[in-house]
User: Fold this.
Amino acid sequence: MDKKVQSIKWLYLTVFLLPVLAMAQQKEPKKEKETTIDEVVLVGYTKVSKKDVTNAVSSVKADAIKDMPSTNAAEAIQGRMAGVQVSLSEGSPGADVDIVIRGGNSITGSNAPLYIVDGVQMDNALSILSPKEIESIEVLKDASSTSIFGARGANGVVLITTKGGRKKAKTSINYNGFLGVRKIQNTIDVLDPYQYVLYQYELYYKNGIDTDKTIFNNRYGTYDQLSKYKDVKKRDWQDEVFGREAFNFTHNLSITGGSDNSSFSLSLNNVQEDGIMIGSGFKRNMANFKYDYDLSKKVSMTLNARYSRQTIFGAGTSSTGSQGTNRLRNAVRYQPFEGGSTVNVDDFDPLFANETNLVNPILLTNNEVKENGRNDLLLNGILEYKINKDFTFRSVIGYVQRDEFVNQFSGPITSLARQNNDQPVVFLSKTQSRRITNTNTLNFRKTLGNHKLDLLVGQEIVKTDAESLTMNVKWLPKSISAQEAFANIQSVAAPSGMVQDAPKTNVLPDRIASFFGRANYIFKNKYILTASMRADGSSVFGPGNRWGYFPAASLAWKVAEEEFLKDSKVISELKLRAGYGLSGNNRIAAFLYDTFFITSSDYGYAFGTNVTPGATTGNIMANPGVKWESSSSKNIGLDFGLFKGKVYGTLDFYQTDTKDLLLMARIPQTSGYEYQYQNSGSTTNKGVEFSVGSTIINNKNFTWKIDANISSNKNTIKSLGNSASATANSYLYPSGWQNSLNDFLVQVGKPVGTYWGYVTAGRYEISDFNYDPATQVYTLKAGIASSAAVANGAKAVQPGDLKLQDLNGDGVIDTKDMTDLGNAQPKFYGGFNQTFRYKNWDMSLMFNFSVGNKVYNANKIEYSTQYLYKDNNMLAEVANRWRWFDDAGNKVNDPTALAALNANTTGWTPPAGAYFLHSYAIEDGSFLRLNNVTIGYSLSKEFTKQLGLSNFRLYFTMNNVFTLTGYSGYDPEANTRRNPLTPGVDYAAYPRSRFILSGVDITF
Assistant:
C-alpha cells in the first residue's frame, strides 16, 4: 500500500480510535450521558423508536449541525453517515452536490436518492434548504426500508423534517448571520515566461522550416534575445481569473412560538455569495412558514409553505460538453507574460485566436455571461385524525413547482460567435415542472400484554407535468450587450441563405399510483418483525409493464433485553437486525416505448434560397417492452451501546443486486436504427458500514464527544445483455471531454467507472534507436514497439517521445494494448467529527476521507499534449522534458552529445498526436480533508438575561481547512462528467476554495 494511504489510515486511527479505546479504560464521569438509542426516527410513512428499528437507517439531528454555518445543507452532513457519500462536483457557487448511497445501482439511470421533505417528494431538496431549518435527516439505505417507497426507492431515500414551533411556548426570535471570504486554495503550475519561449523555440525550430523560424523570430525574437524573458513580468492568469477575494453574506432569521393548541415557525434565509472566478456568484432567498393547529383533541392539521429563489451567475470553467467548452484552458495555456511579444495580451487578436485556439481569459470571461435561475415552491398540508386510541388517519397533500431558466450570452470573441460570422449568440432555456402528491394512510397501534402491533395501510398518487423550451439565437448585432440580447432576440439579422435553429419544446408528463402496507410486530420488547408491500403503477412504461410489486421483510432481536445480558456492566444495548426487500427505479427517460420525431436544421433541406428544418426519428428504436430497473437488497446489522451508553454504534453488512438495468444496445441496422434501450444489465454492490460514537468526557465544565464512520463498497457488473459484444462481454464508453475518446470500459466482472487506456512506459531513450550519421536520422530498433500511431500522429518516434507499454507483445502499440487503469471506487471512505465544550467555549472538527479511489486527471492529458497548436503554455513539469537544443540554441543530433544533454531530464516530449488516455493521468485520489473547524463563544446565561436575550453566541469558522492528498489537481473529489458510467473525471473543474467566516447567533 502507498505511503500516503498508510499515513491517512494511521492518522484516522490516532485521531479517532485511540481516544475511544482510552475512554473505555476511564472511570465513569460524575454525570453520564445516556446513549441516543431512544431517539425517534422517521421510517417510511411513520415514526418509530430507534430501539425498534429493524432496518439500515442513518440519522442526523438538528443538534449535530446547528452550530456549523453553511449555505448548503448537503455540506453540513458530509462525512456524518456511514454508506452515504456526499461530494461537490466542483467549487463553483451553487455547484451540484452528489449524494450516493451504498455505491449507486443504476448504469444509465439516475443514482440520486429520493428526497421527501415533510411528506412531499422534491428533487435535490438539500440545495433549497438552509441547515438552520432542518430538524432531522433520516437516510434509508437498505431495500427492507426503502421498498415502502417502491418505484423510487432503489437508490435510497432521504427523509427530511423541517423545524416547527412548539405549543405552549412563548414567541422566540433567532438571528444567525455570518460574513465570510473565499480564496483559491491552489493552482496548476505552468511554465514561466522564459521556459515558455524556450519550449516555443523548440517547436518552431525543430523541423528546420524557414517560415516557422521567421514566425518565431517576429513573435518572440531571435534566440540570443530570449534571455530578456527571464525578467519579463509574468501574468498569472489563474490568479487573475480565480484569485479574487469572494465575499459571502448569509442571514438566517427564524420566529417561533405557540399557544395551547397551535404552534408556528417562520424561517427566512438570504445568501449573497461572490465566486472566486470573475463574473461568478450566487444569490438565494428562501422563506418557509409552518403552522400546526389542533382543531380538537382528535383532529390536528399542519400547513407548510416554502419558497426559494436562487440564481447562479457565471459561465464557469466547464460543461458536460467536450474540449471546445473548456474555459479553464485559456487561463492555463495563454502566454504567461505581457511585453516581449507582438501579441498584445490585453487585446483580442482573431489571427492569434485561430492559430492557438486561445483567447485572453479576462476578455473571454467578460464575453461569456450566464444566468442560471431556479424558483421552487412547496405547499403542503397534513390532516391527522385520531379516530380512537388505536386508529389514526393521516392525509398529506402537496404541491411542488419548479421554474428554471438559463440565459447565456456568447460575445463576439467567443469561439461560438466566431463560428457564426463573429456575431453574438444567445442560448435561452425555460423549464417548468409541477408535481401534486396525495398520500393517505391509516395506522393501527395496539399493545396487548407482551404483544405490540403497528399496522399501516396507505394509498398515494404522484402527478408530475413538465414543459421545456430552448432557443439558440444566432447573428445578433456585434455591439449588443448581454442584457440587451436577452431582452431583444428579435434584433437578429441572419446572413443571406441562413436560417435560425427552430426552438425546441418538450412535454414530460409522469404519473404514479401506489398502494402499500406495513406491519410491525414486537414480542416481549425483544423480538421484532417488520413486513411491507407496495404496488406501483407508472406512466413511464408502456402498457403491460406499468405495475411493479415491491415486498420487504426484516427481523430484529434485542439481545440486551435477554436475562443473560440484563445485568451486564459492559453491554447496555445490543440489537441484531436482518432484512430483505425489493425496490425499483423508474427515473429513466420517458416514452422509450414509443417513437418520437426530432426537428433540427441539421436534418434540413434546401427550399429555394433557404434551408428548411426537417424531422427525423433519430437512430434509437422504440422498445415497447421497457420495464422497471429493480433492486433486491440483503442486510445484516448490529446496533450496540457500551458502558451505559458512553460508546454506541452500528455495524452493517449488505448486498444489493440490481437487474433489468436499462442499457443502449446495438441492433442490426437493417431495422433502420442503430440502437435500442433494453433491460439487459445487472450489477451487484457488496459492502460493510461501521459507525461508532462516544462521549469521552462529560462533566460540568468540559465535554468531549466523537462520532465516526467508515464504509467499504464493492461494485461489480454482472450482465450487459445485448449491449456488449458476444466475445468480450463489454463495450467502451466515452467520457466526452474529448470527442470520440473511448476512455471508459463497461465490462462484466468489473466495476462501473473503469478507466480504459494505455500504460505509460516513460520515454524512448537513445538506446532504443539506430542512428545514421550521414542522414542524422534515428530509426527504432527491431523488436521495440512504436507508439507513433497512438501518441505521435503517425509520425516516426524519436528519442524523448512518449513510450507506451506493448502489453500483448506483438511489436505494435495499438488498441489491443489498452487495459484496465483502475476505477473511481474507493476501498473505503467515511468521516469523523469531534466536538468540545469548555465552559462557554465550544469547538467542532469535521473530517472526511477516502482511500484507494483513482482520479482521471484529464487536465494533465490536455496540458501536456502538443497536438494541433503552437504558442500554448504547458504544465510546469514540461520544463523537465527531453531537450533537442543546447544552451546556445543549436539543435543536437549526435547520440553522445544528445545523451549528455538529457542526462538530467526525466520527462518526455509533449505528444504531437491526438489526445488519448494513458496511466500518467490516472492518479491516486486518496485524501483526508478537514472540512470544517468552528470555534464559538456563548455569553453566560446571567449576562444574556440582563440584555434581554436567551442566547448570544459568536463563532469563527474555516471550511476546507486542509487536504492531505497526493493528487496533483485542484481537488481529488472533482467529478465533472455527471454520468454514472464516467465517474471521477477531473476536467476543467472550477477550483475549490477555502472559506473563512465569522458570525453571530442571537436568540431573543
Notes: The longest strand covers residues 425-448. Confidence is low (pLDDT under 50) at residues 3-37. The chain has 17 helices and 46 strands.
